[in-house]
């Protein structure tokens, strides 16, 4: 089966140059190496059977012994006395869903984002193209996009005793250099990128990306994992797609609830699961994707090597893990934000082919 998928993926790359069928997310040829978005009017409408949102998870947290204070909630209003003591509900998680009609995915597709980001990762691209939420929705997948605990629409618990640490927020230079977009220190100021880089790094697009960045904690993994578990419990057996920091949660959630994860797609996972529980993953097909420029990066060779060791441990336990280094397939120029790169549709087609090969789509 693995050989069949690898051959099929190579065919997908070649087919990416052909016109898209009606209803598929389209792109138009632009200047060399650039993909221009097809105007919205040229896309077929998406038909939904249902859509909505909900929150799951969370735990009670008690604060005591704090002084009360007066708060003016709006200009010109009357001051209110606020007592911070009491029981708080923290660690809830937001999820929005869209159910297409007709439906071809055999299971819901859950999309979990990376660190310092929210579900917007999957919803759009910085230069205004449709995101992977649309791509897979157009192919008949019920798509669930969530915001991890303490981020975005899940809210933010600013109680040090509850979070156990201080949030981390990034300068504009940090992702440009660390996400394998720019060609080294000072590249944002220079406006230079790695040769052939596919991320939409013009000034306006990159500022759009930075607007999506949010503070993150490095101390709330347990809360977040609990919430992802609650999401799986509510939605039921699903295909889970994760990115970067989400790799940790994807592997760990699959280890804790192997009956709820039918397949796992890991886009540049930045962390691994519990090595003592790899046997729990043996019946879950997995696809791990890595982009370009890794060998010349300061951090990513070690991160990828950790992922490869974890994948080998899963295989040794009887599991199935397909690993794709995109440049080896002729798919070049991908940054860490693969789902936002200008060739994101090509990578999404590869993932779709893999899911089909694993019987997840009909």
Characterization of this structure:
Helix content is 29%, strand content 21%. It is an alpha/beta fold. α8 (221-235) packs across α9 (246-256). It starts with a helix and ends in a 5-residue tail after the last helix. 45% of the residues are buried.
Could you list some keywords that capture this structure?
two-stranded antiparallel ribbon, disordered N terminus, 362 residues, alpha/beta
Give a short synopsis of this structure:
By secondary structure, the protein is of the alpha/beta class.
How are the secondary structure elements laid out?
Elements: H1 2-15, E1 27-29, E2 35-37, E3 48-63, E4 69-71, E5 80-82, E6 86-100, E7 109-112, H2 120-123, H3 132-138, E8 143-147, H4 160-163, H5 173-178, H6 187-190, H7 203-212, H8 221-235, E9 238-243, H9 246-256, E10 261-267, E11 286-290, H10 300-316, E12 321-325, H11 344-357
Parallel strand pairs: 7-8, 7-9, 9-10, 10-11, 11-12
Antiparallel strand pairs: 1-2, 3-6, 4-5, 6-8
